[in-house]
Amino acid sequence: MPTDAFPPMKSTTPPTPLQKLSSWLPRLSIMDRYIARELTLPFLFGVGAFSSIAVSIGALFELIRKVADAGLPASLAFEIFLLSLPTFTVLAFPMSTLLATMMTFSRFSSDSELIAMRGCGVSVRRIVVPAVVLSLLITGLSFAVNEVVAPASTERAALLLARALNEEKPPFKEGNITFQQQEGDQLVRFFHAESFDGTVMKGITVVDFSQDEGEDGLKQIVSADAAQWDFARNLWEFTNGTIYAVSPTGSFRQIIRFDRQDLQLPRTPLDLAKRPKKEEEMNIAETREYMNILAQTGDEKEVRKLAVAIQRKYAIPFACVVFGLVGSAVGVRPQRTGKATSFGISVVIIFGYYLLSFITSAMGEAGVVTPFIAGWLPLLLGLSAGLFLLASVSRQ
Fold it and tell me: 169 φ, ψ to 5°?
């Protein structure tokens, strides 16, 4: 009997969850896989090149100087160098995206591959889709590194360097802790501590200007040897002090001495006593938390600076999408340029973008524009330029 007399039996094995998921995912065409593969190598080259340049200027030369002059161990210097890489790699992602798209599509144009694709009925917009999708993936990766990896590694590098050079400081201010609580333009309360050991503040003076029963002016002065924050009850516990109740005319109404006194004052002085991290050592949540603390002090200049920094932390990863779109739009234009020309054009675009970003950030910190505009205006302008260039090429 011939073996093909019976039809083959279908498998009754149920599909695995991975197979079910893959059935819902879009299928990549041969063209998409080809373009993605051609984009990958220039992108990796750009990450290596731009990261090397940035980390050399920002960290390597200084570490070499400390090894030679301050006796920093070479092994520790190498560890600090590795910990510094994530911060500079994040900055290299947008630049590498621009370089990869420009080099890839410029080569397609010079080798007439774009003509072949368009001759098969593929539009310019469809050709650049793989580059845009890759830019979105890099944006997600950049945001994850910038939020999770880079702040922790930068803080660790700074701590190792300080310990090695015997310059490590305690994670809190040891003295002269000042807090001015304001409501609008009005000073409500002034708090000063002469010293702090991480738990107890000593040499406390609190001047309270808040209103009491409709009376304007100075309300009371509290002077104490020490004060400690009670986390369970959310209040300050003062010891060995005196409360001077002051009338609006400036005369003392009452003097109260105490051994221990609980006062409902803001916790902000304790938060300010913690030595603040640098901007690059904080993620968005930590930056926002510290900004809210400073907002209670009325330091509007520093608050604006942190607000602009938060917008930059959001905007930098999305620069990958803008650079990917601009690079694709410039690369698909009919031209015959080499890799060196593409690299040179990329450097010019990158310089212009970061110069504009520096200007808008300075304007935001000065209060000329809002923090949102300061952080996102360069991206919006770049996105508009990319869409305009892509539309003009599509009409050709």
Answer: -115, 155
Helix (H) / strand (E) element for 74: namely helix 74-110
Instruction: Answer whether residue 239 shows pLDDT above 80.
Output: yes
> What are the residues whose beta carbons fall under 8 Å from the beta carbon of 378, sequence distance 6 or more?
315, 353, 356, 357, 360
Of 58, 63, 57, nearest in space to 78 by CA: 63
The dihedral built from the CA positions of residue 56, 57, 58 and 64, taken in this order, carries a sign that is positive
Closest CA relative to residue 131, chosen from 106, 158, 163, 168: 106
Inter-residue contact 95 to 4 (CB < 8 Å) = no
pTM, full prediction: 0.74
Please report the sign of the dihedral spanned by the C-alpha atoms of residue 18, residue 149, residue 276, residue 307. negative
Instruction: Quote the CA–CA distance of 307 and 317 in Å, as a whole number.
Output: 17
Placement of tokens 């803001």 in the chain: 266
Question: 57-115, pLDDT tens digit by residue?
Answer: 888 888 888 888 878 888 888 888 889 889 888 889 998 999 899 888 888 877 788 88
Radius of gyration of the chain (CA): 30
Token pair for 328: 């694709």
- What DSSP state is assigned to residue 91? H
Q: Rounded CA gap, 26 and 31, in Å?
A: 14
Helix (H) or strand (E) holding 202: strand 200-208
